[in-house]
């Protein structure tokens, strides 16, 4: 069992009521989904043999946990630095010869900027007899924050914030990031050349595209400056003058597929959403539910995806056998309100509203890194009585959804899921339990 996951209620700090079998099963499905994508399981089999000089670098929410495994593998023969989000460093500043730095996410900060500068220096000093091992996971785009020449960190922070709140997909956000960076979009591998680079990536993106994971610092980039300009225009984002000039000049493109300097690089996707969903499906089946995986790359506005899933859940109520609808991917939120929350918590609130208390349907929606948006929760759970309990507390679900305040809705209900950092990240995990037997019993 994953030693990192311990579920608590936000309001009271009490453990979940274990007398509720659906709540217990939803929690277990999330645990099992996380377990199979932990660095402690998936990193070691892909680590290459040490070279004359082995440099370990990386970035992401799983970077510290990945570096810990690498340090155990290489001992003191490797040196390097990885960057992770504040609170995700395992309480360590160094493992073996690898330094661990915590920095800002999702908005980059000075600490990440300085650490990225040091990583670039480390790989640039490597010769062809060296080996660079790059450990990537979700969150690496913000953490590996080294703006291109002529762009300030403040410029990049402004563009990042505008993109995150616009409803842009992660592919679109990372396209822009790559073209404002000195290290992303293959530029880290170019800096390491002629040293070969072996990249181990825990995928948090739909489709597991290596050029999108952490904005692909060691991978050829198929996107262009023109694409980045189009994305900003699509969402009506007016960038700072320095960013606008940089994108228009387009002096040095990111390395493209076929670039000979990337020829000796290797990349392994060592964990992905599909593995997490398969593990949850096995657990659901063992509990007597027929698992149906809707997909591991679902995208779109969180509230829109929730409406679609509510319709599917109601359709399955007519079946004789209990069903578990499982899905992954990355939903987005276009922020217009002032409340707190994230895509998974907003999905859960929209799902509760769409189901309107339908008996026999229970659900969980969580980010697998343990943090949904910028709050302290991974997501939330819903039950047939969610709206009734909310009404008793004077909560207006529609108003909370309109204000993007899903956190403020679920906190008083004590239905937030707060495991803390999980030290991995394969993005969203959603499970909807549909039990016709429970619906009939509760109706009676």
Structure description:
The protein is of the alpha/beta class and 444 residues long. The chain has 2 domains: 21-37 and 273-443, 3-Layer(aba) Sandwich (glycerate kinase, domain 1), CATH 3.40.1480.10; 39-271, Rossmann fold. The protein is 38% helix and 19% strand. It contains 17 helices and 13 strands. The strands form 2 sheets. It has a 7-stranded mixed beta sheet. The protein has a 6-stranded mixed beta sheet with strand order 8-9-13-10-11-12, with helices on both faces. A hairpin with a 2-residue loop joins strand 3 and strand 4. The longest helix has 15 residues, at 21-35. The protein is globular, with a radius of gyration of 22 Å. Residues 1-18 have low confidence and may be disordered.
Please write out the topology:
Elements: H1 21-35, H2 39-42, E1 53-59, H3 63-74, E2 78-85, E3 94-95, E4 98-103, H4 110-124, E5 130-136, H5 140-143, H6 153-164, H7 170-178, H8 187-192, E6 197-202, H9 225-234, H10 241-249, E7 266-271, H11 273-286, E8 290-301, H12 302-316, E9 323-332, H13 343-355, E10 361-367, E11 379-382, H14 386-392, H15 397-402, H16 406-413, E12 416-417, E13 428-434, H17 436-443
Parallel strand pairs: 1-2, 1-5, 2-4, 5-6, 6-7, 8-9
Antiparallel strand pairs: 3-4, 9-13, 10-11, 10-13, 11-12
């Amino acid at each position: 069992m994953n030693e990192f996951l311990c579920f608590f209620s936000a309001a009271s700090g009490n453990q979940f009521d274990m007398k509720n079998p659906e709540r217990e099963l939803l929690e277990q499905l999330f645990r099992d989904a996380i377990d199979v994508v932990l660095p402690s399981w998936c990193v070691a089999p892909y680590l290459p043999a040490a070279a004359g000089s082995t440099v370990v670098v990386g970035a992401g929410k799983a970077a510290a946990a990945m570096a810990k495994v690498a340090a155990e593998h290489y001992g003191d023969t490797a040196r390097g630095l990885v960057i992770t989000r504040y609170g995700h460093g395992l309480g360590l500043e160094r493992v073996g010869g690898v330094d661990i730095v915590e920095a800002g996410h999702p908005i980059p900060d000075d600490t990440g900027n300085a650490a990225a500068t040091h990583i670039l220096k480390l790989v640039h000093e490597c010769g062809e007899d060296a080996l660079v091992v790059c450990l990537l996971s979700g969150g690496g785009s913000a953490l590996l924050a080294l703006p291109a020449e002529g762009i300030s960190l403040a410029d990049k922070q402004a563009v990042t914030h505008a993109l995150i709140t616009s409803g842009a997909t992660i592919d679109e956000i990372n396209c822009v990031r790559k073209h404002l960076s000195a290290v992303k979009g293959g530029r880290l591998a170019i800096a390491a050349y002629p040293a070969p680079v072996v990249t181990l990536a825990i995928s948090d993106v739909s489709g597991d595209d290596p050029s999108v994971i952490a904005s692909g610092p060691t991978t050829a980039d198929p996107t262009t400056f023109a694409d980045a300009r189009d994305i900003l225009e699509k969402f009506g984002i007016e960038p700072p003058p320095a960013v606008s000039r940089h994108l228009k000049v387009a002096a040095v493109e990111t390395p493209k597929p076929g670039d000979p300097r990337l020829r000796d690089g290797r990349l392994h996707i060592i964990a992905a959403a599909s593995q997490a969903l398969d593990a949850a499906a096995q657990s659901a089946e063992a509990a007597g539910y027929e698992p149906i995986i809707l997909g591991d790359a679902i995208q779109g506005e969180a509230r829109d995806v929730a409406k679609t899933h509510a319709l599917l859940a109601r359709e399955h109520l007519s079946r004789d056998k209990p069903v578990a609808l499982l899905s992954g991917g990355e939903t987005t939120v276009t922020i217009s309100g002032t409340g707190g929350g994230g895509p998974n918590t907003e999905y859960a609130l929209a799902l509760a509203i769409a189901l309107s208390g339908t008996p026999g349907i229970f659900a969980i929606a969580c980010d697998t890194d343990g943090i949904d948006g910028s709050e302290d929760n991974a997501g939330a759970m819903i039950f047939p009585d969610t709206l009734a309990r909310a009404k008793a507390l004077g909560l207006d679900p529609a108003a909370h959804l309109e204000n993007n305040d899903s956190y403020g809705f679920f906190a008083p209900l004590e239905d937030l899921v707060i495991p803390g950092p999980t030290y991995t990240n394969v993005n969203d995990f959603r499970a909807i339990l549909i039990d016709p037997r429970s619906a009939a019993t509760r109706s009676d």
